[in-house]
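Look over this one:
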Amino acid sequence: MAPEELGPIPGPEREIDEVHEPTRLAFRAELEQLKLQVEVMALRVDRQITRANEVLISGDPGLAADVVGSDDEIDDMLVSLTERCYDLLARQNPMASDLRLVVSVIRILGDLERTGDLCLRIVKLHPDHDLLAGSLHTFSILTEMSREALDLYRLACKAFAAGDLELARSLDERDSAMDEYNKRLMEAILEIDGPHAVATAVKTLLAGRALERIADHSVMVGERLRYMLTGDIGSLTREISPRRTL
């Protein structure tokens, strides 16, 4: 048989690729599973935000207790999924894009957990509901901020689930609405008067600050997604911006 009839002789690089291909496929499957579990955690946090907003509006102590009780579940997911990320990094030698995914997921998990903690800050104001609701102007702004924070969070989750780069980029522009609400709230707080003005102002400020920070973390989810998809580290500069305290 002529040498040319034997076909191409596999080189060492091809043999290595064939050996490692099943491992790479298994790794990609684990990454997809990790991404799905992050989405499950995000749904749990969505429920916390929704219920925290309801407590803000109604002052329902029973619902507030439910939100507080559910926070442990989010904390447990943070620990479990973070450990899984480190396990993946330890067992594999991921390529650049896969490494960015795992690193970004670790940071997004932190954003989700801190968002859950901010929900606790809101519901723990339920004993002061009458005080908050007594200032009609500021309470109206808080109500609008609660809706905007939830909408922004859901957009961030949608962008992550779909890997939608354009939607991720739009989050920063959408956050300007929350900035405007916060500006209006600060101005309205200065106009509060009456015997409970100081207490009302303080509680209103705490609620508004928590809602603003939920929005900030939602935007950071978008920024981390941008880094994950493009490798552009410049998208993460928002995290160290002087005007942000995450």
Observations:
- Helices lie at 12-58, 61-91, 96-123, 129-134, 136-162, 165-189, 197-230.
